[in-house]
Automatic annotation (TrEMBL):
One family name in Pfam for this protein: TrpP
Transmembrane helix recorded as keyword: yes
Protein's name according to its UniProt entry: Tryptophan transporter
Chain ranges passing through the membrane: 6-30, 51-71, 77-94, 106-128, 134-158
Tree of life domain: Bacteria
Keyword Lyase: no
Keywords of the record: Membrane, Transmembrane, Transmembrane helix
Organism of provenance: Heyndrickxia shackletonii
Ranges in a coiled coil: none
InterPro entries in the record: TrpP (IPR031360)
Length: 171
């Protein structure tokens, strides 16, 4: 883990924190998790186990601290750690050498749906839900759509910037 990678991941987490904080709760104080987009970007750009653990833990803690969901700290930590490693596994398994914006968008939608499912399930088991599971799951689907649009815009930009600054070589 070099300093350039750490700084880049910290910037992604910082941007994700701002996005997660300003997005309002949609249904029963559950909000689309834009921090996931930044976590997924970090995993795709720096695909190493230690980076995945760091990104999963950091985004889990920060999104838990900035959530509007009642009792959402622990479910957020569980969700991000599990989702980060599932996303990493899918990325390693299916990406091979070429990775396009379309793959990034599809992976983001899948990752967001996994994240929402893990979050709602862990919240249900640990603290209870403020409403019916299926009603809250609508927010997950809205979040998947928002994250897909964000990834379509951000992935090419971030990839170009990091390549030009020599943080990553083969983006």
């Amino acid at each position: 883990m070099n300093t350039k990678s750490l700084v880049s991941m910290a910037l992604l987490v910082g941007i994700g924190t701002v996005l997660h904080t300003i997005i309002p709760g949609i249904i029963l104080d559950m909000k689309p998790d834009m921090m996931l987009t930044m976590m997924f970007l970090g995993i795709m750009l720096f695909p190493e186990k230690k980076n995945v653990l760091l990104l999963g833990a950091l985004t889990g803690i920060i999104s838990g601290l900035t959530t509007s969901f009642p009792g959402g700290l622990v479910p957020n930590i569980i969700d991000k750690l599990i989702t980060s490693f599932i996303f990493f596994g899918l990325y390693i398994l299916l990406s091979k050498k070429s990775f396009s914006v379309i793959k990034a968008i599809v992976f983001t939608v899948i990752g967001t749906i996994i994240s929402g499912t893990v979050f709602l399930t862990s919240a249900l088991l640990l603290v209870g839900l403020p409403g019916p599971f299926l009603v809250l799951y609508i927010t997950v689907l809205v979040g998947a759509l928002m994250n897909a649009v964000a990834m379509a815009i951000l992935y090419p930009i971030v990839q170009t910037i990091l390549r030009r600054t020599h943080v990553i070589k083969n983006a």
